[in-house]
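Re-running the complex after MR caught last week's input typo. The corrected sequence lines follow. Everything else is unchanged.
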Amino acid sequence: MQLRHVSTNLRQSLRRNVSMHAAVIITLFVSLSLAGIGVLLSKQAALTTDVIGSELQITVTLCVPDEPDFPQCTSEVTPEQEATVLQTIRDNPEVAGTEVISKEQGLDNLRERGVIPDEQFEGSDPLITADVIPKAIRVTLKDPQDYDGVTSAVQDLDGVREITTAQELVGPVFEIIDYTRYAAWGAAGALVLAAVMLVANTIRLTALARRKEIEIMRLVGASRVFIVLPFLLEAVFTALVGVALAAGALAAFTRFAIIDGVAEVITGLPFIGWGDFLYTLAVIGILGPVLTVLPTLLLTRKYLRF
Amino acid sequence: MAAGTVVPVIRFEKATVSYPGPGKPALSQVSVDVDKGEFVFLVGTSGSGKSTALKLVLRELRPTTGRVYVAGKEINRLATWKVPRLRRQIGTVFQDFRLLQTKTVTENVAFAMQVTGRSTRDIRKAVPETLELVGLADKGARLPDELSGGEQQRVAIARAMVNQPMILIADEPTGNLDPATSVGIMKLLDRINGTGTTVLMATHDHGVVDQMRKRVVELDHGVVVRDEATGVYGYQH
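Corrected-run output:
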């Protein structure tokens, strides 16, 4: 295949439609950035849920010995007591599911929340070990407001240390995350629509500008791939520029808004980091080209009359 | 087709083309064979079905009923992705030349080779040879605008011939040219035909048909009304 011919064509076409391509790139850049922020916020919500439980959940911690605040606990909860508590919870019609958090998991979660300095978990004789962490049962409710039934059924059972609802703690946090996330996704959706329509217009203009050339190509027997390739390369090119710009914006968001921003100000909650940024990058890296290549494939079929 | 007979390059077998809606079919039960190396005029008034017949050969259209074979392939059964390969065996020339105005003569001819994936070496060899064939060896650097109508049509013929097709289809190639220039173009097409290329030419041009004394197939309202081995444009009285 004549690569030089294809690349010349691509260059010409990009130059011919500079303003259209710029419009596609800018729209893609903004929509992908917003979609990326939506993904990052989902990651944040999932991370928060993992560590402190979602608002749909209540946490029943079980007894550990020697805690003056909880006089009903005289010793570590026994397996029998634990089984009774678990069964009572599961029998309750308001309960959607349960998850047992072991002492080790509890230790990890506590450490991840970052409230207690790391030194207390480290060294040959750490201050905080899994032993002192209470075992817990995380209960997912069908309706987050309906926790009274479970609470009253469980609170007087032997081996129960404390019942906490995540509602007060995480409710506002989730509310903010959710609203921002939905706003980001809504705006991203509208802009994605605009981007796709711009891509469609660009293709129509290009097909019109090149119609004589394309007609001749068809008549002399150029393969379909050869005819469509410049359009596809244009689509991939604009998508990649859009993705690159969005990646920059999301990196800045992760760095300045999260890592150096809220994570510095709000302690007691874990925050997303560069790993989540890379995941988001992969998502928009796929989404961007799909948004331009898919309409190109569909519309070249339509406008080029194969 | 029995063994031993010459396989026609183009064969229409009771080909009918109907467009949606009421009205007569554009082509009706047309059966015509064109052998390799023949020169055939397709004549008839506007709307007689000439262009439809050419579109069938190019596989721009498919017959509604009946069969059409081109270069041994039944076009009705030809998969869409194989159509470009078929078209590489057919050169096409039009009344309006259809040259790319921003490209030079050489680039216009080379374009047909570039887009079918031929190597630069092949292109460098074939383009000057073909320009020589059509008598434009010294005009390769010109733009179409700088050429006369006859010269532009020669460029279009060069583009059609540069891939050495088996068949040359010409749709009113002299339609925009004065009689003297038309004679030159017809001589060129005759010379191309002399090298073994089958030529199928649709035309309105009485003078050209009468002068050449080649086979004439006349269409009227989509039906073949005449097929003469050495005919003229109108009926001989």
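None of the earlier attempt is carried over here. Chain B has seven helices and ten strands. The CA atoms of residues 9 and 36 of chain B lie 5 Å apart.
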